[in-house]
Write a structure and sequence with these properties.
about 120 residues, globular, about 0% helix, 11 strands, four-stranded antiparallel sheet, mainly beta
Length: about 120
């Protein structure tokens, strides 16, 4: 129901835009978020956006570099990632939940690799 795309290989300082489309659910009812999991590490929160676009939340490690957005008409959320660093290398997962603290649906993940 959640399909993420846009991952790839990029050099340090480069940019990528991830997309995540939700099908089979009313997209506008959900908080949308991105998480990531680096090799050997636990999954961590990256960013989230409220259903009405009003509130956005970011991990300190990505503030000022990443921007989360959504298009309810297209049932799609985005993560614009700029000034990428090697430590951003991870599998990125999109998620949806009725509240920001409870993500109910998860995408399959898309790999982002930042080379130094």
């Amino acid at each position: 129901q959640l399909q993420a795309s846009g991952g790839g290989l990029v050099q340090t300082g480069g940019s990528l835009r991830l997309s995540c489309a939700l099908s089979g659910r009313a997209f506008g009812n959900y908080f949308m978020a991105w998480f990531r999991q680096a090799p050997g590490k636990e999954r961590e929160f990256v960013a989230a956006i409220s259903w009405n676009y009003v509130k956005t939340y970011y991990a300190d490690s990505v503030k000022g570099r990443f921007t989360i957005s959504r298009d309810n008409a297209k049932s799609t959320e985005y993560l614009q990632m700029n000034s990428l660093k090697p430590e951003d290398t991870a599998v990125y997962y999109c998620a949806a939940g009725v509240t920001i603290s409870t993500m109910e649906y998860w995408g399959q993940g898309t790999l982002v690799t930042v080379s130094s």
